Amino acid sequence: MHAKYWDPEIETLSRGELSKxxxxxxxxxxxxxxxxxxxxxxxxxxxxxxxxxxxSLDDVRxxxxxxxxxxxxxxxxAPPFGxxxxxxxxxxxxxxxxxxxxxxxxxxxxxxNDIEIWKESMARQFWAVGMRPGDVYHHALNMSLFVGxxxxxxxxxxxxxxxxxxxxxxxxxxxxxxxxxxxxxxxTPSFVLHLAEKAREEGTEPxxxxxxxxxxxxxxxxxxxxxxxxxxxxxxxxxxxYYGIADIWAPCATxxxxxxxxxxxxxxxxxxxxxxxxxxxxxxxERGELVLTTLRREGQIMLRFRTGDETCYELDRCACGxxxxxxxGITGRTDDLVIAKGVKFYPSQxxxxxxxxxxxxxxxxxxxxxxxxxxxxxxVRVESLGGDEKIxxxxxxxxxxxxxxxxxxxxxxxxxxxxxxxxxxxVTDMRKIEAV
Length: 436
What we know:
Blueprint: H1 8-11, H2 15-36, H3 38-46, H4 68-77, E1 92-97, E2 107-111, H5 112-128, E3 136-139, H6 152-158, E4 161-163, H7 170-180, E5 184-187, H8 189-201, E6 213-216, H9 225-235, E7 238-243, E8 253-255, E9 262-264, E10 269-274, E11 288-294, E12 305-314, E13 326-333, E14 338-340, E15 343-345, H10 347-354, E16 360-370, E17 376-384, H11 389-403, E18 408-412, E19 427-429, H12 430-434
Parallel strand pairs: 3-4, 3-5, 5-6, 6-7, 16-19, 17-18
Antiparallel strand pairs: 1-2, 7-8, 8-9, 9-13, 10-11, 11-12, 12-13, 14-15, 16-17
């Protein structure tokens, strides 16, 4: 009989005891940044901030925010890794890059110790979703420069058998699944749905395959209730949302088997949720932008990194017994926020409406442009099993009711839109192109 937790002591600490560990790690992190990073040494001295000034977790708020732009600037100023790196180049054993979702990719570097800690933290997250020694795991995230490929090391650490499938032909994925019968699969929500669609095209009902647990990341779909239900229905499996960010520490948060929020690894990262306009912290239960500070990363220390991801949090003990902060879903990136006709909305809100119509397929696109009267026009293009005008009219009404503006809906034949094998790009804003 296996234990309930990977690390029972850490995962069930009281808030007070957890804060003591965080403070010790924060002091060490800031001291290391001050002593070993040229950039942080200059920045902290310029702010009259010394590592000895850290007396409580609140003291981190005295430091300025950093973001993806900061990371690019540091790497351009001191190529290739940037002067915020806190180790010598010969200590770096792994070099990855970001996916480039928001612009030019940035380097993410790891020391030998960073990799070992990554394995341990990822094993804890896999354990939380029910993975145990002997289970077979199909890894369908990109295995190249994208850091998501590292996550299979956690499965190996806990004793599971990992299949490093990566991004390949969809039929080959299905062949491997049929051959090795994995219980777990991990991919982006759009790919998991596409794989189910492909299985049906080949005459196999996905729920009849061996998959019983689906982990999704890289897109907001795992935090969209109707999308999660669709994935679970397609595969006859439980679906768990996962959150990671290469700039910080990819194993950041995951749901447990209760599926009541994503457990943040608070002994690896120090979280804040802020009002993106004011930079001030928001209260528990209020939505804001997630800010993270690394607590154990050795090579690439990040202090108060603005992730650009919107969420809210809860601090009460989960029904599973874990005590670390829970993120109550990731709505989307602040960069993905669409403003049209004076109304703000995320693609995930549109997706939630679309998934409520069983006649619609999984792929969709959103296009925003200026109309002839210079007013914004928003069009949703989605594949439908039937081109019934009643479906289109009902969908337009529901989108207007939920989001508050008029949408044009185009129903397309199945197979019209390109399939997504990695992270889906849902929005094309023609206004930005027209303005050039």
